[in-house]
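Just wondering, can you check both lines?
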Amino acid sequence: MEYCYHIEDFIQNPAQYKIIHFQNFKIRDVLLWKQFCATIKLYPIEQIIIQYVTLTVHHARDLADTIGACKFLHTLKLEQNNMFNKAIYFIARGIANNNSIQNLYINANKFDNVGFYYVIKALQINSNIELLYLWNNNNISENGYFNFANFIRNNNKLLVISLSGNKIYSSVREQMIKALQDNFMMEECF
């Protein structure tokens, strides 16, 4: 499988790539980003990995439409992209519209309970996610994790959840343990 590491390379020859892997760059050309997002919808991309890139609301909105349209996409990694609530709202909308996604990584971003609520709602709509990585999202409070515990109690598709590096309070840990005991499909939670 061919990895694509640059937006320009993908736009010039999109048919040769199955995996998009961008990291450590700043989106300076908005038109190029929009062209990338429009082009990616037309090809059978299986993985989108975007790390250490600041995804603003506008970037996230364009990417969300792309995520929703990529019917071969099974892995979405949006790690350490400084996404706040409004950006994660659009990403969650894209996730909700794509039932092919099985692996979701939204680690180390900047959203709080509001953004976490959007993620939980997207996961309720898109029930095909099996691996969920949410480590180092430390702006989520006790209430956000209580809502998440209620969600995982009834989700029979999630097999692996990573919450490591998050500030999880002892009362929430007890609720999470009870929820995991009720969820007979969960294989790993760390």
Q: What stands out?
A: The first strand starts at residue 3 and ends at 4. The two ends are 30 Å apart (CA to CA).
